[in-house]
Amino acid sequence: MELLHTDNAPAAIGPYSQAVKVNGLLYTSGQIALTPAGDMLENDIKKQTRQIFANIRAILEDSESAMDQIIKVNIFLTDMNDFGIVNVIMAEEFGDHKPVRSTIAVKTLPKNAMIEMDVIAQVSDYH
Q1: pLDDT of the chain along its 127 residues, tens only?
Q2: Model-level pTM?
Q3: 2-122: what fold?
Q4: Given 3-state DSSP classes, what are the helix, strand and coil percentages for the chain, each rounded to the nearest 5?
């Protein structure tokens, strides 16, 4: 098992790793709309969702994976009315790649984020 960190995504804000690589798979911790410098974006679902995808992409790329290697996405929303907007952005991010997904409504998220996501992806260097 390898605990991973990249400076191209926000640092963990608690006692956990950004991601863990094990047996050819990469598991990310939940990502909220923090910039790599640690600043939280404003309450705008489009901006927050795009920042989360940027963070996930950075973690994947620095871990020998990529967006088209994502197997599963877990999405946590504080307002299910944002579901359609997130779907549009997810379609833009993934194109023809269609990972499995769960979307869960939650009451609150860290730093009052509107959305949080984590992913499971394949790692290209696994033999």
Answers
A1: 999 999 999 988 889 999 999 999 999 999 999 999 999 999 999 999 999 999 999 999 999 999 999 999 999 999 999 999 999 999 999 999 999 999 999 999 999 999 999 999 999 765 4
A2: 0.93
A3: 60s Ribosomal Protein L30; Chain: A; (3.30.1330)
A4: 30, 30, 40
